[in-house]
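Tokens in:
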């Protein structure tokens, strides 16, 4: 997840006055029609204010997420209210220049950004921005301080996530799943409904049908065309997911029996090794095929054997980017980042990357555990930081990724290069332990348990929100709408019956934090496009999933050219710069997993397909 200074701007209000014309015959001042020069001046003034106010607001949010107290909640809510007021003023001001003739490219693009980059728009009525910010801060804090139960004892967010991956007793899994969703999600439901109402009112004031329509308008294409593009990508990759689902369901049925997991139909959500069943890699031991299933090593165990702690894990991640030619992270990164959960206070453990000053005050915020998942996450979060630094010479409104999926995909495609050969190169794995080709199905299955399993979840989170914002999912149907989409796309069901006193969406960080989620779906697809492009540039000739471009400075230089573009050009331009194509496609992902798909189809013969 990315957090930037510009995205947290606050403490200012737009003070741009419309140009004055000559007085009319009644002595009143007449407003002259805005010109292209007025529009350019408006944008320049807006960017200056945005950039200047970024540092204060970013620091306030950083302190809140790393030190959750009523005082820090109040401070970040105040900053959030000022941000929302500023953003709404800017959006309304930008709309006045929408039909001005003769706008240059940058002015036109930036006016569009000012209008549709608001995540939570507030109405212009008095007090609305303050109320919206207070609600947002409150429910984010509820998530950060939330606890589930294990063996009848409270357990915090980062610990319960780890325990869900390690536990195999279905009764304990059910206890954790139910308690987390009930304790964290349900209490925020009334406040979330209020937040939706206020934000929708704000979106309509900016000329959008609802907040979801506003979010979809930010992708350099028609909002409906964007939704259709995501559906097409999903439909192209759905057969791969269904094959994986069928295989995993059969293995869970073999382990737990019909009373826990039936051999047909949907999968019980809490059995998949993750609180949200969004990634299934933690239960690889249950589904690993005989022989090829054991790849001969576990990254987490390798890290522990070599004495890695959180700091050394981050250093290893930095080393990958350095090998591509990127300069090392600044000293302040090591001094100011949060690597582990403090023992003395509540924090938001959800991993995120920050650029406090939009120059070089880069940080990550994690509660790192020495395991394989966090090793990958570190490579992912650092991808945000290197992207942020690459485009830091751009003007304020271009300090962002080509689209939000790009920002998430950079670190993910780097992490795809955490192959056995890479682990040998950095001294974690002995060359004699590199698995032979007959282990490839195991390697691919382990990857698919995270990468492929995530696809439907990555799509449905925002489909649920789009439905909530549009009213297709009514306030009294939040839970039913969530469960319906989970069944439709993921083929999973809760371990216990849910009703409308519950609010399971709120038990996923990105819902209370109002972080758009389609970016993660796009990132899962884009990362394979980036990865294949990098491997092609490196001259890789073997199976795609074995490729590592660690140490290839030519790949790094080409990547840097794309990163430096920031948001200055439409995303197809940035995609073409690195991959040579202008279309987001699932073809590279399908190629990567083609050997696994063939194997899964063989294993699934005679098994009921789908749910």
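Residues out:
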């Amino acid at each position: 997840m990315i957090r930037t200074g510009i995205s947290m701007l606050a403490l200012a209000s737009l003070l741009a006055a419309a140009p004055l014309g000559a007085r009319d015959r009644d002595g009143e001042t007449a407003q002259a029609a805005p010109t292209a020069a007025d529009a350019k001046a408006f944008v320049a003034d807006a960017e200056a204010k945005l950039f200047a106010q970024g540092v204060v607001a970013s620091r306030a949010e950083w302190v809140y997420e790393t030190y959750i107290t009523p005082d820090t909640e109040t401070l970040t809510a105040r900053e959030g209210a000022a941000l929302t007021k500023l953003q709404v003023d800017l959006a309304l001001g930008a709309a006045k220049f929408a039909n001005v003739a003769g706008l240059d490219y940058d002015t036109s693009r930036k006016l569009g950004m000012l209008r549709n980059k608001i995540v939570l728009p507030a109405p212009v009525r008095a007090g609305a921005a303050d109320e919206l910010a207070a609600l947002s801060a409150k429910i984010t804090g509820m998530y950060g301080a939330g606890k589930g139960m294990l063996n009848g004892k409270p357990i915090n967010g980062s610990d319960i996530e780890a325990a869900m991956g390690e536990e195999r007793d279905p009764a304990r899994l059910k206890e954790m799943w139910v308690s987390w969703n009930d304790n964290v999600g349900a209490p925020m439901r009334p406040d979330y409904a209020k937040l939706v109402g206020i934000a929708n009112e704000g979106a309509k004031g900016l000329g959008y049908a609802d907040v979801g329509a506003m979010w979809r308008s930010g992708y350099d294409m028609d909002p409906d065309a964007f939704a259709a593009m995501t559906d097409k990508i999903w439909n192209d990759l759905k057969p791969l997911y269904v094959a994986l689902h069928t295989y995993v369901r059969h293995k869970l049925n073999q382990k737990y029996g019909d009373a826990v997991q039936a051999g047909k139909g949907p999968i019980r959500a809490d059995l998949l090794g993750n609180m949200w069943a969004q990634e299934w890699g933690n239960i690889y031991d249950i589904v690993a095929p005989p022989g090829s299933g054991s790849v001969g090593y576990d990254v987490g165990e390798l890290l522990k054997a070599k004495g890695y702690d959180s700091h050394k894990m981050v250093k290893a991640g930095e080393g990958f980017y350095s090998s591509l030619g990127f300069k090392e992270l600044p000293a302040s990164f090591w001094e100011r980042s949060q690597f582990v959960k403090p023992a003395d206070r509540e924090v938001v453990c959800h991993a995120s990357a920050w650029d406090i000053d939009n120059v070089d005050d880069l940080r990550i915020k994690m509660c790192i555990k020495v395991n394989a998942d966090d090793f990958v996450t570190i490579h992912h979060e650092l991808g945000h930081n290197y992207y942020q630094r690459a485009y830091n010479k751009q003007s304020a409104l271009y300090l962002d990724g080509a689209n939000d999926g790009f920002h998430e995909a950079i670190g993910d495609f780097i992490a795809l290069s955490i192959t056995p050969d890479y682990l040998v190169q950095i001294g974690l794995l002995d060359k004699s332990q590199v698995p032979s080709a007959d282990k490839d199905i195991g390697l691919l299955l382990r990857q698919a348990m995270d990468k492929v399993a995530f696809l439907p979840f990555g799509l449905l989170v925002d489909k649920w929100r789009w439905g909530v914002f549009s009213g297709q999912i009514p306030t009294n149907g939040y839970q039913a709408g969530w469960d319906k989409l989970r069944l439709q796309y993921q083929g999973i069901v809760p371990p216990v019956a849910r009703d409308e006193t519950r609010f399971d969406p709120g038990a996923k960080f990105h819902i209370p934090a109002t972080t758009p989620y389609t970016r993660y779906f796009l990132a899962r697809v884009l990362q394979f496009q980036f990865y294949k492009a990098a491997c092609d540039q490196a001259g890789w000739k073997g199976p795609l999933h074995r490729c590592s471009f660690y140490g290839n400075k030519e790949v790094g230089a080409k990547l840097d050219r794309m990163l430096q573009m920031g948001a200055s050009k439409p995303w197809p331009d940035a995609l073409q710069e690195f991959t040579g194509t202008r279309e987001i496609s699932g073809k590279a992902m399908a190629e990567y997993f083609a050997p696994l798909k063939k194997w899964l189809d063989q294993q699934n013969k005679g098994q009921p397909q789908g749910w």
